[in-house]
Amino acid sequence: MVSVKLNPLFLNEGLNSIELQKKQTQQKSQLKTNGLALSHNALLSNYNANHLKANFLPFKGFSAFGSDSELPEFNVIHYTGVKLKDVGGISEIKDIIKNRVIEYMKHPEKFAEQGAKIPKGILLYGPPGTGKTLLAKAIAGEAELPLISVSGSDFAQKYLGDGPKAVKALFVKAREVVTDTPAHKVIVLIDEFDSLAGARGKDNEHNEDRKVLNQFLREMDGTTDNKGIIFLAATNRLEDLDAAAIRPGRFDYTLKIPNPSRNKQARTEILAIHSLDKKFKSEEDKKKVLEEGAKITRGLSGAQLAEVMNRAANFAALRDEPKYITTNDIFESKIELLAGPKVFSDLPKWDKENTVAHECGHALVGQVLSDFAKNPWEKPHQNSIISLDERDKFLGAVFTDEGENPHMSFNSMLAEAAVCYGSYNIERARLGGTNLDGVSEDLKVATEIITDGVTALGLGPNTKQVCAKANDYAKSAVTQEVSKDIKQISDSASLIAKKIIDFHREFIEEYVGLYKEVAGKGGNNFSGEEYKKLLDDWYKKTGKDKELPTLKKEIEKIQQSAKTEFNSDNNEVVKTTK
């Protein structure tokens, strides 16, 4: 077979018709010289097809490989250097893998006596950054087996036009490694598996994608012996996978790798793994820092937790003293990861103070309503970190997590909206009855929370159990009730925020005074616990703690009023929900 090498310029963007004609003429001559002849239309067709591939293919003729004998090379990692102990936060998953997979690889005779078969494939799925690829490497390292790692997207992009041939080459390489390895086994990791095994029959499906998947399934089930090849596939999008590709017999285990965002113990384990080579004041202090770090990093993935520890070490290395990681380094790392580094501006003093008060309004309303809640399901999200430093994405912020309540009830919906309205009410109190444009996002979020509760969660006192979001019929049936509920709950939430703000005006001004003009030393970050202590100390110092029962009764009255159902015809109260 004659290989024709295309001039790379022929694939550049922006060729006009004259240049294209010249390139086609040159290409024809080259083809004839090599003993090949193509019609003008065929050549133009090939140009159009290859023009689209220009960003992906290392061309050698009209094939990525040039000939059937030229197959892609796949790298073999003979030892990954990663063990299961290097993966934290998924102890249950590791137990399954250790007992049912690795044990079989090391001692197959135990399972053979019972007629058990080794899994042909294991599918790992979960959100990005949860450690799926790391776990796959750990499985290979723990089993002391070689690993061939590929990306599913390669078959659709890197080997565009030759995806099926590349799949065949992958299996050929795996069988070679099985033959050459003393254990006669190899692990093949296919990352981004959804790029290779996406569901067939979709409108956006490409013929090339279907060919690649069909070839993969043929190879897995083919007559050629695949004994000793264990497949690991990783994806963020389980719902997009072809059902035939992941059925038992191909992928026998489907394991969810969870985000540690709602598992404090998991976050502690992950932070500990990534702190092994880091410096702390002492082992006892290290334990406290990691414990506090696990509290305030709720919501982060495993990859983000690793980066938090890395940035914390950078902060410790760059300052004069202390030369070890502190709790504030963890705070600062999380905030910088999510919102960017600190920036310094020439905002006037009143503007900076207003920002501090704005954030205090959020944190204060959330803390008070959490303290007043009779039941866990009535609580808003709890304060995690209050940051008063300017950053790329904000002038100040309050980070929260689910705390004791990961759900939404009527009172927690009302409380979440009130927290948003805290900034609106404190600005109007401090700025003579007006507010600044910085509250716009808070108002939007509050309205979205209430709207979702009323139209989808059955929390509206007038819309009740009707899900207005279900369809147009449901929406039209309760249009007036939806409007009434949104306005009623919004007014009540804002009134609750105003009551709390008015009660705590002196505390807010004291808190504004805590802001330090010189940022960068950690003095402008407060944990939720530190903030609560500031508030409790203020209560005792001023004697305001004795007045809290009165404030609580006033808020409970507003909460009850917000639940009141009105007659849609004459606005008369007809019932109060419990």
Count of DSSP helices? 21
Number of strands: 11
In angstroms, what is the radius of gyration? 31 Å
Let me know the largest β-sheet: 6 strands, mixed
* Structural class estimated from helices and strands: alpha/beta
Amino-to-carboxy terminus distance: 82 Å
Q: Which percent range fits the helix content?
A: 40-55%
Name the shape in a single word. globular
Q: Give, in spatial order, the strands making up the sheet with the most strands.
A: 1-3-4-5-2-6
Strand content: 5-15%
- What number is the mean pLDDT? 83
Which segments are poorly predicted (pLDDT under 50) over 5 or more consecutive residues? 1-25, 27-69, 518-522, 568-578
How would you sum up this structure, described in words?
It is built from 21 helices and eleven strands. The chain has helices at residues 17-33, 40-52, 91-106, 108-112, 132-143, 152-156, 163-180, 193-196, 207-221, 264-273, 283-296, 302-318, 327-339, 349-372, 410-430, 440-455, 472-477, 479-503, 505-512, 528-542, 548-562; strands at residues 76-77, 121-125, 147-151, 186-191, 229-235, 253-256, 382-387, 397-401, 525-527, 564-566, 573-576. The strands form three sheets. It has a six-stranded mixed sheet with strand order 1-3-4-5-2-6, sandwiched between helices. A three-stranded antiparallel sheet has the order 8-7-9, sandwiched between helices. Strands 10-11 form a two-stranded antiparallel sheet. Helix 18 packs antiparallel against helix 21 (548-562). Mean pLDDT is 83; it is low at 1-25, 27-69, 518-522 and 568-578.
